[in-house]
Amino acid sequence: MGVETEVLVYFQELVQKSIDETEKAVRMVNELNLFATNEEIDEIATSDLRFPLVFALLHAISPSLVFLIGPISPFCV
Predict the structure, then answer these.
(1) Minimal CA–CA distance to 48: which of 60, 59, 36, 38?
(2) Is 22 within 8 Å of 58 (Cβ atoms)?
(3) Helix (H, G, I), strand (E, B) or coil at 33
């Protein structure tokens, strides 16, 4: 296994660990029931804005893993 491959595998493992930990945080935020489904963004206290950002973080890091394992074929769905 070449150095580049080892680095990519290591990076993929870190991304997967980050995704796992962020999914755990998402579950914890959901269990807190901090937000109503009909709540507007301007109704959320500034100190609570970090909680919905967990969902954005998960969305931001997830494509990094897919990029490393290859594109998803539309025929696999």
Answers:
(1) 36
(2) yes
(3) coil
Answer whether 0.70 is exceeded by the pTM: no
Structure tokens at 73: 């074929």
Burial 48-72 (b: 16+ CB within 10 A, else e): eeebeebeeebeebeeebeeeeeee
Contact yes or no for 54/29 (Cβ under 8 A): yes
* pLDDT one digit per residue (tens) for the chain, 77 residues: 677 778 888 888 888 899 899 999 999 988 988 777 888 888 888 888 888 888 888 888 887 765 555 554 454 44
Placement of tokens 């074929």 in the chain? 73
- At residue 27, φ and ψ (nearest 5 deg) are -60, -40
